[in-house]
Design goal:
Three copies of one chain form a homotrimer. The first copy, chain A, is 40% helix and 15% strand. The first copy, chain A, has six helices and five strands. The first copy, chain A, is globular, with a radius of gyration of 16 Å.
Chain lengths: 160, 160, 160
């Protein structure tokens, strides 16, 4: 049993999926896993709100702009390649379903069941104008020092 | 002598080249190196078929679509930036030639001569509709558990 | 106290910023940090010349093309997503300022004050047609073997 950390910087469906497949695989092998979500990767942790208003600190116009551009939920993330306005992503999700590969939502649920520690980067939340109220439950909030502390204890550290 | 692993997720000419330069450099320093090719990175291992049909399991329409979109051989990979429909890549390859930098095909050959272990991710092969018959000889086939086993023994693990 | 290495391959404002935030954070925790700038990441180290000619080895036409395409200074790097021809980057820099997040120029200055070792990849300099005269002072020049030597001594190695 050892420890792994993954920084999820990218907000691409395929890269986030790779991050969770590695994380869940490691957890299944009894590793302790910490995922640190920063920048575009934060969108992975968004709670689908169906347009409902969430409370919290008011956002500046620019923050509103950024949080509007970010996909509203993990299943809306695009592919890093061949996204074609979402068509490529839809195709890939369809193939994955027929090949019995889990969706990101399922991978997140599995990660939480397996006790993977998910941390939202507070500095990125400030820049992107994303509030804790908008993110899923059961995650932690911290900065780069916390990440570095975790990475120091791990034997595999990836930036995705 | 120590061990290194590199996940080649990206299918960009420049990033794949960086992966092989690091891998070959480490092997030249007597390190044991494992490269794990997944998602778009799988295209790196494609055997140029010149349009000839290869045998194997039939592909679904969506899988055919994905495998058609993927570059047919490593020398056809695009740049991650300034690709301009292949022009940027052509320019870069020309400069690299004049600077005596190896092409990806040469880097792959060198990696195989140096005994670098190259693994094709079987889950990605299923999703992308890529069959073993389409990939170069001398590689292995495995999943995330194998990668994690290798990474646990390594002192440097990169995701590219 | 331990050692960290970061390969800065990407030339995106957001990714380079992430690299420096991790590097500066580690240095603040008394870690020894080495950053290795390669490919598009080299643009980070460019010295703003305001169009003035710099001396050094003459460049080929293709090298001139590449060095012209690369942003002339770190503050001109684009975002990896939602760049919109520079508008997204401008917006993000504005939000960061209001949230008191340092710019890349400030992060570089802080990295140099903290004694972070910054290495420009000489092979990439040849390919991109970038000369030492065009890069900021106080950095080192080396190749992949030097990077691997540093990584062997480190407990966290990232590729960004």
């Amino acid at each position: 049993m050892s420890k792994k950390t993954i920084i999820v910087f990218s907000g691409d469906y395929d890269k986030v999926m790779a991050a969770f497949i590695i994380a869940n695989g490691a957890a299944a092998m009894d590793d302790e896993v910490t995922m640190f979500f920063t920048f575009w990767g934060l969108a992975t942790l968004r709670k689908p709100t169906n347009g409902a208003k969430v409370g919290g600190k008011p956002k500046s116009t620019l923050q509103k702009g950024f949080s509007m551009m970010l996909p509203p939920s993990p299943e809306k993330l695009g592919l890093s390649k061949f996204n074609f306005g979402g068509l490529g992503q839809m195709m890939m999700k369809k193939v994955m379903k027929s090949e019995h590969v889990m969706t990101i939502s399922e991978l997140i649920a599995s990660a939480q069941e397996q006790g993977i520690k998910m941390i939202a980067c507070t500095m990125s939340m400030d820049v992107m104008g994303i509030r804790a109220e908008e993110l899923i439950d059961g995650i932690e909030y911290a900065g780069v020092a916390t990440y570095l502390g975790e990475a120091d204890e791990a034997n595999v550290n990836l930036f995705i």
